[in-house]
Design goal:
The complex is a heterodimer of chains A (251) and B (637).
Chain A: E1 4-12, E2 21-30, H1 36-49, E3 72-73, E4 76-77, E5 99-103, E6 112-114, E7 117-118, H2 121-128, H3 150-160, H4 167-171, H5 178-190, H6 198-211, H7 222-226, H8 234-249
Parallel strand pairs in A: 1-5
Antiparallel strand pairs in A: 1-2, 3-4, 3-5, 6-7
Helix pairs in contact in A: 2-6, 3-5, 5-6, 5-8, 6-8
Chain B: H1 15-22, H2 28-31, E1 35-39, H3 43-55, E2 58-62, E3 80-81, H4 93-103, H5 110-130, E4 155-156, H6 162-180, E5 183-186, E6 189-197, E7 200-208, E8 214-218, E9 221-224, H7 245-252, E10 257-258, E11 263-269, E12 292-296, E13 313-314, H8 316-320, H9 330-342, E14 354-357, H10 359-365, H11 367-385, E15 394-403, E16 406-407, E17 420-422, H12 440-462, H13 473-492, H14 498-512, H15 519-539, H16 551-575, H17 599-602, E18 604-609, E19 618-623
Parallel strand pairs in B: 1-2, 1-9, 2-5, 9-17
Antiparallel strand pairs in B: 3-4, 6-7, 7-8, 10-16, 10-18, 11-15, 12-13, 12-14, 14-15, 18-19
Helix pairs in contact in B: 3-6, 3-12, 4-5, 5-12, 10-11, 14-15, 14-16, 15-16
The chains are: A alpha+beta (251), B alpha+beta (637).
Chain lengths: 251, 637
Amino acid sequence: MHNMTLKLRVWRQPGSDAPGKLVDYAATNISPDMSFLEMLDVLNEELTRRGEDPIAFDYDCREGICGSCGLVINGVPHGPKPATTTCQLFMRHFKDGDTVTIEPWRARAFPVIKDLIVDRGAFDRIIAAGGYVSVDTGSAPEANQIPIGKDVAERAMDAAACIGCGACVAACKNASAVLFVGAKLAHLALLPQGQIERERRVIRMFEQMEREGFGACSNEAECQAVCPKEISTKHISLLNREYLRSLLKNL
Amino acid sequence: MILDGKVPGGPLETQWERHKASLGLVSPANRRKYTVIVVGTGLAGASAAASLGELGYNVLNLTILDSPRRSHSIAAQGGINAAKNYKNDGDSIYRLFYDTIKGGDYRARESNVYRLAEVSVDIIDHCVAQGVPFAREYGGLLSNRSFGGAQVSRTFYARGQTGQQLLLGAYGALMRQVDSGQVKMLPRREMLDLVLVDGQTRGIIARNLVTGALERYAADAVLLCTGGYGNVYFLSTNAGNCNVTAAWRCAKRGALMANPSFVQIHPTCIPESGEYQAKLTLMSESLRNDGRVWVPKQPGDKRAPKDIPESERDYFLERRYPSYGNLVPRDVASRNVKMVCDEGRGVGTTGRAVYLDFADAIKRLGRDTIVERYGNLFEMYERITAENPYENAMRIYPAIHYTMGGLWVDYNLMSNIPGLHVLGEANFSDHGANRLGASALMQGLADGYFVIPYTLAHYLAGAQLNPVTTDHDGFKEAEAAVRERIHTLLSIRGSKTVLDFHRELGKVMWDQVGMARNEAGLTDALHRVRTLRDEYWQNVKIVGRDDDVNKSLEFGLRLADYLEFAEMLIIDALHRKESCGCHLREESQTEDGEAKRNDADFAYVAAWEFTGVGKQPELHREPLRFDFVEVKQRSYK
């Protein structure tokens, strides 16, 4: 494959209160082996040389695990390749001459800070409301005292694999966070360690989710389709069951 | 100055117990009177902040990222060691201690390493209680795998995402303390200076990465949990935001930097593909459990790996190290990979790669087992290279991965500056000249969960701490200096970008201060770094403002520090005229090309005191004593 030229349309927004707009750029001499973010690095170098403000976007590990990066690429969070974060998307999945539109996550609960950077503090506040087992350092029993079935541990791990990137929210027309919340609840509800706080956890996390301004679920499963870790919507059903269970128990 | 590590002495097995019994305490009612700043939210920072919050201290916790859940510990793949001996294969605390001391090539403190091995078992208990979904056997008990540098199976893991799961466990504990109000979380903040008052650590200056505002935070102690400095080499497996700035600012305030030249180069990374490359991606060392490393016997053999018959392949690690085979420690593996590539037997378009082949393992175990063990790693490889590792042998090459060197600390994890404690990768303490696989997670959590809660109390109980507010001159002076540095950098408006300079620095460091080092190359590197630094302050181009999100400015400030720090790293490498662990001096090798230590002259920690930019730092030595292990030339043959 030869190097490519792409037409980029990038969301530029100077700050959270300032209006934003799509700005056109040409990305030239793009190698198919570049990652999407390396393509933006190359463009930013060019902008810097011209004295223009580079495009602001979040990233850190660039290996698909930290959850920092997240761009809406041609309308799809993390772009066209399934089960892939933006940083692990490679330019070989684009064609010479393509027009590529790049936007930030759009959700009321994720306000834009600058350009493509959004504030996902709402996710931290949901976790703070109960996404853990309350165990103080030093008080744990011997690790093998509570056996856990291999299948249970595997299912808990499937749920715990969430990287908190927020693509699920960005993909949802209601900007719902139920996949994110459901995954954390499932991880802990499956394990014996998570049982004691099960009811309190779901109520508190659910209420925090609503306070943050995330929308309701309308069962279209776009969240699952864009999730880079392929977290399943069955965790949303679990969230609903856990919530009901908790309400019934408290009647 | 001869440094005193303040090790407890007496029998090794009871040192930590006796030490704990002798430490001062802060009563529950008094803890709320103390404020502690924790910089960083990786395994060390998050576990420390959570544990101190649980104890009732007021904690201010900073991260440069948007959330504590994203710190780079999250990227650790393979596992965490613990001396549980669940496998009945002869493991023990002593054995883990011994392997770690030997793996570090006898350049770590015995007492620290023994304590690390001792608390390793508590870490597993605690993480399981938090709900970390470690891999399990069918009977429901915890599963283990083996890792480099050990002949027992003691590594606990959660698929290829062990770091992620341990970090999310610590993050959960941390957010519970945020919820209770005991920890105040300050995301998108970067520490840019340390504030000393009357010789004691009393706070920091941080930059708010959203507004650009410089913020002052006062405290009774500071815990630096800011990771390593691998990005001084530009390309590494570290995350983009990993940097030396916080540690270097402390060094410039008088904290000693120990063994900065001890940098680990990880053998199994995906080879570089082009000039634009921003980072290198690690493939977990656990792959070497089942993957076989080889190159063609003949230089320049361009056949596809499948077409090269067994008899024309050289499984060079198995051949040279029959007892450890593909599981030799990282430094040995990396060096051998470099050697066969230097012989012209490297593969791939650049010739800087070797094969890591799973064909035999797939035949022996079946594809399903390989998918279960390494599925996500294989996916990652395919995503990056567009090649299927189930069908074709992987290509790998070493890359900068971890820094054993760091700020000097005593047995209590306190630097030579009172109140400044350093945890995890940011300190130098446990891995000597080479870290064994699955030991970084262990150290980060040991320091944060099980060491600092005791030793910090001791400091606070014994220190005379007068009330200090952020109006103190120490804060004003530090903030003014940071502001000045920012304005100077922004006003240069030269013609080369921060990335241009960083690439140049990286090239010098990798070529001349990388896997093999010699006097002439190091001396030349020193000269080049100095020249580059001078040019940087005259010709760097950073656009944008200081009162805004400005990543170029963030990276520009970090690179300015790397350009100063690199000099100290090279000076350390120059002075250590022996090979040890990851530090291979070409002048000091055995006849068959193995690293040759010089215990008579170099059995010490080299701790460097900053004396001014471009000036020779002052060397302080902490002699290393080995009372409980026999010091030998390492052999994995």
